[in-house]
UniProtKB/TrEMBL annotation:
Gene3D superfamilies: 3.40.50.980, ACP-like (1.10.1200.10), Chloramphenicol acetyltransferase-like domain (3.30.559.10), Nonribosomal peptide synthetase, condensation domain (3.30.559.30). This is AMP-binding protein. The keyword Phosphoprotein applies. SMART domains: PKS_PP (SM00823). It comes from the Bacteria.
Length: 691
């Protein structure tokens, strides 16, 4: 508990919620005044709380309610105020098995690209101990018998998917004998086998959609490989697999019958419920709210790429390792708790800073997974339940990190509130025409998983072996998990767009953002450094990279300080012309106001083509004061080179110093002006810097 005094439940509502919390958090010593998130709660566990409250009270409580009422006392009052509502019940269906919205969309995508590896889900485990193949097969056969979705195939009926449920059948495990090989060599062979199995894909009409392989290594070590199609499985399903496999393996080893209670519902019952729920006013309201959240959002996050985007994404990708040390993880966790935010929200805020710098935008939509199991009974099922939710984060000006975290928290809670709306229904409404070059609505994926030790049969030790699938559905996907007090994972990237070097640089810059934010959460977003000292030194003394983002405070604040200390000292000299620091500051401030009026704000790019004179120097400083970034343009470069630079940088405005250059650049960019045109009204502007 996080309180020194223990306050027990006072009424029936508090008693029921207390029981829910102690079960989910596996902690019997919880006070009604303890904060759920200080006890180790997070979004996934909060989702489980809401599903059980829905079951106990007939109250479909939004996930936001737990964040706003994080103690049992507060939550009980919220439940009582919310009251009971008529809900569409989840019950066994007598109808022909249907597909969920997610399954339908996945099936259609599979038809566009048959046998794609994008939707192959694999899980490989190193098993230490004597693993009996016969008992393993018997346990897996019982699991397939229990879960209808594992013995379902999907045929094409004139362009419409139809689910076909098959009778029970025995599961056979394919065995590879590497018992004469040491464990590292057997592991290598198992990983190669996994890659070959992934390349095989699946015939959705013929099935089966689950394949199992066992690689025997020296001693009592084996590698167990599960290969499945995403149509029948998600991440939580693997928890179900090991829970049931462990119980069945132990029972069958001891000569006992199955200890598992019969399932009360099947995946097809969820699909039937979903179809009925989507016809309710509640679903219509949530879909409307989700559309409002995304209204005016950019259609794509335009990250600077190493290669042009192909018309059809290949799905090929690579991964780079991300490891956040335990002390930094704890600092970020405490930072989030101080703002009533989860570690997920804190890490997403840091990731959004990184994306904002690279894409030069303050309006970012990322995708994240949400459990998609609105009833407790569904926690015991295999199936493709997980829903993709868009999280739109947008801000203006230059907020502090704490202020940005508050924005991210609100955006995340808004996404959670509408999380029952299938992403595929949203795509159907917002993006009816499929663009095969990119994922609809969002192109970057972010996930923070909470990893717990998998159940395992008695006498066996089971550890997961990481597999690189060699593909990705997104431009970037940051997959993180909490393990042993630290955050670790991978940054996946589309090799259609990015090189491994770029991905490694992104990881390095992400780590720099984390460290900067943890050290000083009160600094502004633009002040957060992407570069460490070594990289900054290399940038200063090495060749200039294609684009760099330098914190504007460095030069702006330094010149301001000098101007205050020695205003009449000479700042710039060009031939007979000179400017003092006071004159330079006043001219740059006036010009910055004009740039603001022209749409130059934080990180907006301005192309500058002019000689090395006082006007150009003033303009560059004014751009920084307005919050923008300048792109130097060399008039000796050919038109194609200049056009490419302007496009890649996302340039908003181009300023030149004569009409000849302006006429030329106007053929390359739609928004071109001259220094004379820009500064016509210069002397009527304030001499103080814009806010």
């Amino acid at each position: 508990p996080n309180n020194t005094t223990h306050t027990p439940p006072k009424n029936d509502t508090e008693k029921i919620i207390h029981h829910i919390w102690t079960t989910i958090l596996n902690n019997p010593h919880i006070s009604t005044t303890d904060n759920f998130f200080h006890l180790g709660g997070h979004s996934l566990l909060a989702t489980q709380v809401t599903t059980r409250i829905r079951q106990e009270f007939d109250t479909p409580l939004p996930l936001r309610t737990i964040f706003e009422n994080p103690t049992i006392t507060q939550l009980a009052k919220a439940v009582q105020q919310h009251g009971k509502q008529a809900v569409v019940p989840l019950a066994p269906s007598t109808e022909t098995p249907d597909l969920s919205f997610a399954q339908r969309r996945l099936w259609f995508l599979e038809q566009l690209k048959p046998n794609s590896t994008l939707y192959v889900v694999q899980s490989m485990w190193q098993v230490s101990g004597s693993l009996d193949q016969t008992i393993l097969e018997r346990a897996l056969t019982e699991i397939v018998r229990r879960h209808q979705v594992l013995r379902t195939t999907y045929r094409d009926d004139a362009g419409t998917p139809v689910a076909v449920v098959h009778a029970d059948g025995d599961v056979r495990v394919s065995v590879v004998d590497a018992s004469r090989e040491p464990v590292p060599e057997a592991s290598r062979q198992a990983i190669e086998l996994a890659h070959r199995e992934a390349q095989l894909g699946f015939d959705l009409a013929a099935g089966p959609l689950l394949r199992v392989h066992l690689v025997r290594a020296a001693g009592d070590v084996s590698f167990l490989l599960f290969t499945m199609h995403h149509l029948v499985v998600d991440g939580w399903s693997m928890t179900v697999l090991w829970r049931e496999l462990s119980a069945l393996y132990d029972a069958f080893s001891a000569g006992r019958p199955t200890p598992l209670p019969p399932l009360t519902v099947q995946y097809s019952d969820f699909a039937s419920w979903q179809r009925k729920w989507l016809a309710t006013p509640e679903a219509a309201d949530l879909l409307g709210s989700l559309r409002e959240q995304l209204d005016g959002a950019p259609p794509a996050l335009d990250l600077p790429a190493d290669h042009p985007r192909p018309s059809i994404a290949s799905g090929h990708g690579g991964r780079e390792i991300v490891v956040v040390p335990a002390d930094l993880t704890e600092s970020l966790r405490r930072l989030g708790l101080a703002q009533n935010a989860t570690l997920y929200m804190t890490l997403l805020a840091c990731f959004d800073i990184l994306l904002s710098r690279y894409a030069r935008t303050r309006d970012i939509v990322t995708g994240s997974p949400l459990g998609g199991r609105p009833f407790p009974e569904l926690d015991d099922l295999f199936g493709f339940f997980v829903n993709s939710v868009p999280v739109r984060v947008r801000w203006s000006g230059d907020p502090t990190f704490r202020q940005l975290l508050a924005v991210v928290r609100e955006a995340t809670l808004a996404a959670y509130t509408t999380g029952d709306v299938p992403f595929d229904r949203l795509v159907e409404k917002l993006v009816p025409d499929r663009d095969l070059s990119r994922n609809p609505i969002f192109q970057v994926w972010f996930d923070l998983d909470s990893v717990s030790e998998a159940d395992h049969p008695s006498g066996l030790r089971v550890t997961e072996t990481e597999l690189d699938p060699g593909n990705t559905r997104f431009d970037l996907e940051l997959l993180l998990a909490e393990r042993d007090g630290r955050v670790e994972g991978t940054l996946g990237y589309s090799s259609d767009l990015f090189t491994a070097d770029t991905a490694r640089r992104l990881v390095r810059h992400f780590m720099n953002v984390l460290a900067n934010v943890a050290a000083n959460p009160d600094q502004t977003v633009l002040a957060v450094r992407l570069f460490d000292e070594d990289e900054a030194r290399a940038l200063l003394h090495g060749p200039r990279p294609r684009t760099t983002l330098v914190p504007r405070q460095d030069i702006v604040d330094r010149l301001t300080n000098v101007a205050e200390a020695t205003p009449d000292a000479v700042a710039l000299v060009r031939g007979q012309d000179r400017l003092t620091y006071r004159e330079l500051q006043e001219r740059a401030n006036r010009c910055a106001h004009l740039l603001r009026a022209a749409g130059v704000t934080a990180e907006v790019v301005v192309g500058v083509c002019g000689p090395a004179d006082l006007n150009t120097s003033t303009l560059l400083l004014a751009i920084l004061k307005a919050g923008g970034t300048y792109l130097p343009l060399d008039p000796t470069h050919p038109d194609e080179r200049l056009r490419h630079m302007l496009h890649k940088a996302g340039t908003h405005l181009v300023v030149t110093h004569n009409d000849t250059q302006a006429h030329r650049l106007a053929t390359l960019h739609p928004n071109v002006t001259t220094w004379q045109q820009l500064t016509t009204d210069l002397h009527h502007q304030p001499t103080t810097a814009p806010p």
